[in-house]
Amino acid sequence: MNSMSEIKRLTPEELLEKRRLTLISRARAARAQLDSLSLLDTSYDTCRQTLRQWRSQTLDEINRAHETSLSQLNDAYEQINRFRSNLLSHLNEHNTNDQLLSPSAQLTHVESSLNTLNHAEFTFDFDRARKFEGELQLLKLSRPQQQSRPFNKSNTKCRLLVPCDRYVSDVFFYDDLITRIDCQTPECILVCPFDLLGELLGNDEEVRILIDQTYLPSIGTQAQRMRNEYDLLLLQPAQECCPQSSERVITIICKNPTKMLSCLEEIYTICSQQGNNKIRHSVLKFFLHAEEPTV
Predict the structure, then answer these.
(1) Sheet of strand 206-212: strand arrangement
(2) Rounded to a whole number, what is the distance in angstroms from the first to the last CA of the chain?
(3) pLDDT at 80
(4) What is the reported pLDDT for 276?
(5) Whether the predicted model's global pTM rises above the 0.70 cut
(6) 3-state DSSP helix/strand/coil percent for the chain, to nearest 5?
(7) What is the mean pLDDT of the chain?
(8) How far apart (Å, rounded) are the C-alpha atoms in residues 150 and 193?
(9) Dihedral angle at the C-alpha atoms of 196, 197, 198, 200, nearest 10 degrees?
């Protein structure tokens, strides 16, 4: 009742003003909504463009996959067709051979082949082999820095020529590993595995080893390089063999114990490789000169 009476108390001009303000407020709200719709148009255009690009890329990928699949299928079909043709050709050839050769003829052919192998004589061109061996030796000499296959340090016995009063405690401590050979001279021979050589020599700057003279040419080809590489003050083999022996004494002097040991390791590696080559040559010579028993 109060509100009705209040409305009734408003004059016509006041009512028109109030209605005008309401319409203006609604118009402003509608305009704000329309302005927000323009942002939606921009988003819509962006989304539509993105979808068109995705659709185009997807269609291109589908077309490429389709073409690749067709190409692979064609290649597979050609391979299967070639395999089928080869298989038919082999089957026809096998059938033809079976028709041409009777079982007895086939057995005769196999027996003839076996007899041929049984009576075959194999020859070996030693001149050509020597030529290859010489080229191989030149190749080895031209590449001195290449490392050879390492030898077995625990099984390689080193023979040292030392004064009788040296290394007595070491010989006693390694009684089962180091052998002492008395020569009825002021010097004796110690035989020890290479892996104990570093502990035995310690910081000694001079060592004398006994090496069979057959290994000296191989060691001599590397002597100058080893002198420079290991800073050796002396690397000198004796001019003659020891009495009643084919061994010669090689004297090595070096102030660096580590380089001294490295030099000894290379020397015994050379000896080991040459020994293996001799064994392989002997075995090859045995088999090449062996004759098949005649039937």
Answers:
(1) 179-182, 187-193, 157-163, 206-212, 247-253, 234-237
(2) 145
(3) 86
(4) 62
(5) no
(6) 65, 10, 20
(7) 77
(8) 15
(9) 90
